[in-house]
Structure of DNA protecting protein DprA:
Amino acid sequence: MDNRLGWIGWQILLPGSGRRVWDIIHHFGSPVEAWQASENDLQGVPCVGVQGARKLVQRRKNIQFDNLEKYLEKISCKVLTIDDETYPYLLKCIHDPPPAIFVRGHLPQDDCIGIAIIGSRKPSPYGLVVTETLAGELARGGIEIISGMARGIDSASHRAALMNNGMTMAVLGCGPDIVYPRENEKLMKQIIEKGAIITEFPPGTMPEPWHFPSRNRIISGLSSAVVVIEAAEKSGALITADFALEQGREVMAVPGNINNPKSAGTNKLIKQGASLVTGALDILKELGIETKDIKSQQKKSKKVTLEVNEKKVLAVLSEIPQTMEQVINLSKLLPEEVAAALTILEIEGLIRSLPGKMYINAGL
């Protein structure tokens, strides 16, 4: 056995247990020596104990590296160990990096800047619009968008990156062959084709609640900054923000409605010192990055010339969804005037239509 198999073996034995794995390996001096340790020797590791040693030895006997290699080849999945040159440099630098990661797709070069965009699984229309805007602008500017492929903000950020021909990476809390949530099967295929999915959990591992905090440390570990969009006071996104701070990453947050519980966590982050984000340039300036693409996009958006009726309709729309009837009442315009204005505003990307014929302002 060589070190490569040793790293992979320990990743399979104790996925999601980065610190424990490193304690064991450091105790014996190398992954191979740790792998070959007897049950009695394993009992001497403080974080293992008698019962833990027995379980590790039993599970170790069941691992068949040849079968694993064949299956990984079948699903076009690579395994990168911490000794590999292509293992992401930023992730390698955190306190407890996974000894090995499973990757489907293509990882970017280490000089590519990645920014994590995370938030609520049940975002408001405002949260979705902000996510699509930020992720889209950053992706067009050559920034890689990193998230966790969960429902809501995560999925919206991946889709926005893909729609803008950008790079995106999804970090999973399950095996590389498991689609979670199930409705993201198409999205997962698109990410693999144009970016990468990455996980520390071996094939066949189903999602469990305890997997996601572990997954979150990888999201932040891969990123130069973490941007939180809509998060309640007790949210997995805030756990990721905590990991980011521990890892020396920048934490940023988008301010939200003070009456919306989904914004309580993000507003609290800003109170505690997180950088306030109102646009993509805020993120880049905080990181000392200049991109001409984003600046030109913003200048272009400012050149849109609106007619009087279009300005009136835009003025009454906010992040709160409104029906056409509500827009008619607030704008004091005729139904046909409102319909025409809504069409133009949507074409210009200034508003967004939602299911149920509702409309919101996309520029807030």
